[in-house]
Automatic annotation (TrEMBL):
EC number: 2.4.1.-
Domain of life: Eukaryota
Name this protein carries in UniProt: Glycosyltransferase
Keyword set, alphabetical order: Glycosyltransferase, Transferase
Family: Belongs to the UDP-glycosyltransferase family.
UniProt organism field: Kalanchoe fedtschenkoi
Length: 479
C-alpha cells in the first residue's frame, strides 16, 4: 500500500545578529508554508525576541518551532547574557563573539543526534557547522545573506586580486569576469578579508569559504529576475549549487505580522500608519541604516539639515549608542520646524510595514542586503549610502545594474559612517530621489521590479519553484 513519506524536518540556525536572525526566521516560516516541519535553533536570549513571530506563524497554520541551546557568554569573556552582536558593548568585540559561537558546537551536535533532521540550514557565519553536520550525516546547507551579485564580485576579487594592480587606494579597477563592467576602489572594501588567510577577519573568511565547499549547497535570499546573469554565473561558472528563495520578507502579509518582525518597534503600528495615511502617495522618504550603525553626532546633524532643506516628507530612524533622551545631536529647533512633515523614530522601526505603505516614495539605505531586498520588494527607488560589510557591492547592483538608485557619495568603508556626508550632499541625493524626470524613470523601473519580486514568491514563481527544487533534492537524498 502507498504510504506518504513524513514531512521534511529542517533546522535553521542563524548567526546571532538582527540582520541574520530576521531573514533566517523568515526562511523558517517560508519552509513551514511549503509543508516542512521547520525549527529555528537559537540561544535563550534570542528566543525571547522570536516568540511573537513564531506565534504569528503558528496562527497562520505554519509549522515552526524553536529549540534553544545555551550560549556560555561568560566563558567566552563576554558580558553575561550578551548573545547577539547588537548587544556587544563595543563593535571591536566582533571577532571574540564570532569565535565564541564555537562553544555552541557540543550542544548543536547533541541536538542533531537526538532529532536527526533531514537538513541543517546554517548561517555562513557559523562555518564550523559544516563539520558538525558531516559528522552526524545531516546535509548542511549554507544560508548566505547577500546577493548573487555580491558573492560573484567578491569571489572574483578574492581569486583575481585586481586591487593588487592599482597604485593607490582610490584608483578604480574593474572587477574581472563579471557580466557588467563594475568599477571599484580599494577604499570600498576590507582588503584584509582576502589578503591574509592566516588570522583575524581573513581567517574567518577563509573558514567560511572552506565550509561552503563542504556544504550541500547555498540558499540565497534573492530572486532570479533581479540578477539573472549573476545567478547563472554563480551556478555554472563558479560551479556552486544554489537555490534562490527570496525575497523571504514577502512571507508576511498583514499589518500585525509586518509590525512585529524583528525587535519590538519604538512606535506603534497604528500611530505609524496614521501618520503615513495623512500623506500623499509616493511623497515620503524613509531613512534607515540597518540594525547596527551609530552615526557620529555631526553626521546626524547634517542628515537633519539635509532633510530639512530638501523640503520632503520623511521618516528617519535614528539609532544612537549613548546619549539618552538628549536631542543635542539635532540642529536647534529642528523638530519644531519639520513638525508634520518629518517623523523621527528613535530605536527600532517596523521597516517592512513602512516600506510597503503607498505614501512612501523612496528609501535612503545603508545597503544591507535585507534592506535592499525589502526596498526592491516594495518597488522603491533608493539613495544608496553604503558604509561597511559588503554594502558597496550591493550599491553597485542598485545604481550600476538595476539603475533604481542614486549614490549619496560615500566612497570609504567604515563601520559607523566616518566618511562624512555634508548636509548639501544629503539634500541633493534626496531631491534626486524624489524630484524630476530621472526620479520618475527610476521609480518606474523600481515598481516593475517590485511586481516581479512578488510574483517570484507566488505559486509557480521562480523562487517558489526553486524552494520546491531544494525540497525535492532533500527528499531524494532521504531515499
Ligand atoms: N530593521 C528593522 N527596523 C529597524 C532596523 C532594521 O526592521 O529599525 C530590519 C530590516 O528590515 C532588515 C534588518 O533589520 O530586515 C537589517 O538587515 P540589513 O541586512 O538591512 O542590515 P544590517 O542590520 O545587517 O546591517
Amino acid at each position: 500500500m502507498y504510504s506518504e513519506s513524513p514531512p521534511l524536518r529542517v533546522f535553521v540556525f542563524p548567526f546571532m545578529a538582527p540582520g541574520h536572525m530576521i531573514p533566517m526566521v523568515d526562511m523558517a516560516r517560508l519552509l513551514g508554508s511549503h509543508g516542512v516541519r521547520s525549527t529555528v535553533v537559537t540561544t535563550p536570549v534570542n528566543e525571547t525576541h522570536l516568540s511573537k513571530t513564531i506565534e504569528n506563524a503558528r496562527s497562520a497554520g505554519v509549522d515552526v518551532d524553536v529549540k534553544t541551546i545555551p550560549f556560555p557568554a561568560a566563558e567566552a569573556g563576554l558580558p553575561d547574557g550578551c548573545e547577539s552582536i547588537d548587544m556587544l558593548p563595543s563593535p571591536d568585540l566582533f571577532l571574540q563573539f564570532y569565535r565564541a559561537t564555537n562553544l555552541l558546537r557540543g550542544p548543536l551536535e547533541q541536538l542533531l543526534e537526538e532529532e536527526k533532521p533531514d537538513c541543517l540550514i546554517a548561517d555562513t557565519f557559523l562555518p564550523w557547522t559544516a563539520d558538525s553536520a558531516e559528522k552526524l550525516d545531516v546535509p548542511r546547507i549554507l544560508f548566505n545573506g547577500t546577493s548573487f551579485f555580491a558573492m560573484c564580485a567578491m569571489e572574483s576579487i578574492r581569486v583575481c586580486k585586481p586591487h593588487k594592480s592599482v597604485s593607490s587606494d582610490s584608483e578604480p579597477f574593474v572587477i574581472p569576469n563579471l557580466p557588467d563592467e563594475i568599477w571599484m576602489t580599494r577604499t570600498q572594501f576590507l582588503a584584509e578579508l582576502w589578503d591574509n588567510e592566516e588570522e583575524g577577519l581573513g581567517k574567518m573568511v577563509a573558514d567560511m569559504i572552506d565550509s561552503a565547499l563542504k556544504s550541500f549547497g547555498t540558499v540565497v535570499n534573492s530572486f532570479k529576475e533581479l540578477e539573472p546573469a549573476y545567478v547563472d554565473l554563480y551556478r555554472s561558472v563558479m560551479n556552486r549549487r544554489a537555490w534562490h528563495v527570496g525575497p523571504v520578507s514577502l512571507c508576511y502579509r498583514n499589518v500585525q505580522e509586518k509590525g512585529t518582525r524583528g525587535k519590538v518597534a519604538a512606535i506603534g503600528d497604528s500611530e505609524c500608519l496614521k501618520w503615513l495615511d495623512s500623506k500623499r502617495p509616493d511623497s515620503v522618504v524613509y531613512l534607515c541604516f540597518g540594525s547596527g550603525v551609530n552615526f557620529p553626532d555631526a553626521q546626524l546633524r547634517d542628515i537633519a539639515s539635509g532633510l530639512e532643506d530638501s523640503g520632503q516628507n520623511f521618516i528617519w530612524v535614528i539609532r544612537r549608542g549613548s546619549g539618552g533622551d538628549s536631542t543635542d545631536y539635532l540642529p536647534e529647533g529642528f523638530e519644531e520646524r519639520v513638525r508634520g512633515r518629518g517623523l523621527l523614530i528613535r530605536g527600532w522601526a517596523p521597516q517592512v510595514l513602512i516600506l510597503d505603505h503607498p505614501s512612501v516614495g523612496g528609501f535612503v539605505t545603508h545597503c544591507g542586503w535585507n534592506s535592499v531586498l525589502e526596498g526592491v520588494s516594495a518597488g522603491l527607488p533608493m539613495v544608496t549610502w553604503p558604509l561597511s560589510a559588503e554594502q558597496f557591492f550591493n550599491e553597485k547592483l542598485i545604481t550600476g545594474v538595476l539603475k533604481t538608485g542614486v549614490g549619496v557619495g560615500t566612497t570609504k568603508w567604515s563601520r559607523n559612517g566616518e566618511d562624512h556626508m555634508r548636509s548639501d550632499q544629503v539634500e541633493k541625493a534626496v531631491r534626486l530621489l524624489m524630484e524630476g524626470e530621472d526620479a520618475e524613470e527610476r521609480r518606474r523601473r523600481a515598481r516593475q521590479l517590485g511586481r516581479t519580486a512578488k510574483l517570484a514568491v507566488e505559486k509557480d514563481g521562480s523562487s517558489y519553484e526553486d524552494l520546491e527544487n531544494l525540497l525535492a533534492d532533500l527528499k531524494s537524498r532521504r531515499h
